[in-house]
Amino acid sequence: MSCRGSPLKLEGIILPVPASTEPEVSLAQLILDDFNLEKAERRLCAEALSSAGNIVGAAALLGITRHALKRRIIKLAIEWPPRNASRPSDAVNASAGLVR
């Protein structure tokens, strides 16, 4: 299709909108106690990790890459994964002394 000379008019054309590939997750509103940016960032990261259950999902909720989230986990000293052994493999690793 060539549109040399006159502009192409898109009136009456309906383009399909692709379905979102991101999971629909509703996060509760966070109310901040003060304007401390580091505390707010720590709380957002912790809430996203808790809600998603893993780094990839939490990063998607926050709209950042997993590498960026890992950097924030280290910078903000967020304990991840949590120390409570919720998976059987965690209990095995803990008894073998392999837990970080």
TrEMBL record:
Name all DNA binding HTH domain ranges: 37-74
Q: Which Pfam families match?
A: HTH_8
User: Which top-level group of life is the source organism from?
Assistant: Bacteria
InterPro entries with a match to the protein in the record:
Homeodomain-like_sf (IPR009057), HTH_Fis (IPR002197)
Q: What is this protein called?
A: DNA binding HTH domain-containing protein
**Which lineage do the record's taxonomy fields give for this organism?**
Bacteria, Pseudomonadati, Myxococcota, Polyangia, Nannocystales
